[in-house]
Specification:
The strands form 5 sheets. The chain has a 4-stranded antiparallel β-sheet with strand order 2-3-8-5, with helices on both faces. A 3-stranded mixed β-sheet has the order 12-4-13. The protein has a domain of about 160 residues: NADH Oxidase (3-Layer(aba) Sandwich). It is of the alpha+beta class. The longest helix is centred in the first third of the chain and has 18 residues.
Length: about 375
């Protein structure tokens, strides 16, 4: 027998902001949703929990004899720091990679798992893997409700949380004080700001996201960046927080309570992780790029995709009259990789640097040739007084 309040104390001492618990029966509703959306192609090439919905919604396939979950959540909200000055155009990075909150979450989960193991039970910590639908577990544990942007919103705390759980064969009867979780009432009501605020209309129904339109997903997919979403990408280089930034519960509760709803002051994010200098990225070697940004998901660990994304951002926020920008474009236009040359062609044409594109006029790569003939909207002139 272990005590639930002791498990909570251990988890929170190790860094968890919120702890809950629930039973481990299969998640039939989550499985049905995954299968339906996969059949409709809404997952695009995303595998993750879509790879095998029967497995990722059945805890017994991860741990035979699974009986319950201990659920943990860690806030990753931080105030955005101002963009760095003097580095040329910079790109925004999603909040969830500003700090090592996933590591903090796993430490808290492992701390609780250690208590269970010491008592003779089997326990395994799971988070951000294809084994299990984390949101479904947290929802069953009563941590929050499903928002229209498909995130889990915690009452009084918002959605800026990474989620995970400890799966164990300890039954509720083996845990003194095991809570009886109740569903959290929907807090969205008629609000649809996340749907209206999505730059690419990726939220196709309340709680349903079409990955093919999602900027966060597009930044991680191999191949050319979707042409129809390049302008909408704006200055985002990794992740997109738009649907959470516009969410009233997020804005209201975080102003009032700080991270995790604890009342502590909200820490300012690390400038070096919240912003990426686009010209420095393009000037870096492949090894330097992976060393600096390897914590991001990079398809096939191929730095070409970091350059691809940086070039789309440069095309949106760069100044085509700036000699340093022109130099970066010229270098990318002679890159040995067709993917990089293609996106450099798009960026150069968007910034009005058509004279630079002459170097690829006879390029044999089909992706480059496509960029030479497509219509490219010109970027707005850069305000010379912009910091």
């Amino acid at each position: 027998m272990v005590r639930y309040d002791e498990l909570v104390r251990v988890g929170r001492d190790a860094g968890l902001d919120v702890v809950g618990a629930c039973t481990a029966e299969p998640f039939a509703d989550a499985r049905a949703a995954l299968e339906a959306r996969k059949a409709a192609g809404l997952n695009d090439t995303m595998q993750f929990t879509y790879r095998n919905p029967a497995r990722s919604t059945d805890a017994a396939q991860v741990l035979p004899g699974a009986a319950s979950f201990l659920v943990g959540a860690c806030s990753y909200h931080r105030d955005p720091p101002p963009p760095p000055a003097g580095l040329g155009p910079v790109a925004r990075v999603g909040r969830y990679v500003w700090a090592d909150d996933q590591d903090r979450l796993l430490r808290g989960l492992e701390a609780m798992a250690d208590v269970l193991r010491a008592a003779g039970f089997r326990a395994t910590a799971l988070s951000d893997q294809n084994h299990l639908v984390d949101r479904a577990v947290a929802h069953r544990a009563g941590l929050g409700w499903y928002g229209k942007n498909a995130n889990l919103l915690l009452p009084g705390r918002g959605s800026w949380f990474v989620l995970g759980a400890v799966l164990t064969d300890a039954a509720p009867a083996d845990v003194d004080g095991f809570p009886s979780a109740a569903p959290v009432e929907d807090g969205c009501g008629t609000c649809a700001r996340c749907i209206e605020g999505c730059p690419t209309d990726a939220i196709v129904a309340p709680g349903v996201v079409d990955a093919r339109r999602c900027l966060s997903w597009s930044l991680q997919v191999p191949g050319p960046f979707p042409v129809e979403h390049r302008v909408a990408l704006g200055d985002r280089i990794y992740g997109c927080d738009e649907c959470q930034d516009v969410c009233p519960p997020n804005r209201r509760e975080l102003r009032r309570a700080g991270p995790g709803g604890s009342g502590d002051p909200v820490p300012v994010g690390d400038t070096d992780r919240a912003w990426a200098p686009v010209l420095a990225m393009l000037a870096a070697s492949d090894d330097e790029l992976l060393d600096r940004y390897g914590r991001w998901y990079v398809p096939d660990r191929d730095p070409s995709y970091l350059r691809r994304n940086a070039l789309v951002v440069l095309g949106n926020v760069g100044d085509g009259t700036d000699p340093v920008v022109r130099e970066a474009l010229a270098a990318a236009l002679t890159d040995p990789r067709g993917l990089v040359r293609a996106h450099a062609t798009w960026a150069a044409r968007r910034l009005g640097c058509d004279d630079l594109v002459a170097v690829v006029a006879d390029d044999a790569d089909p992706t480059v040739r496509d960029e030479l003939v497509r219509d490219v909207p010109r970027a707005p002139a850069v305000d010379p007084h912009r910091p």
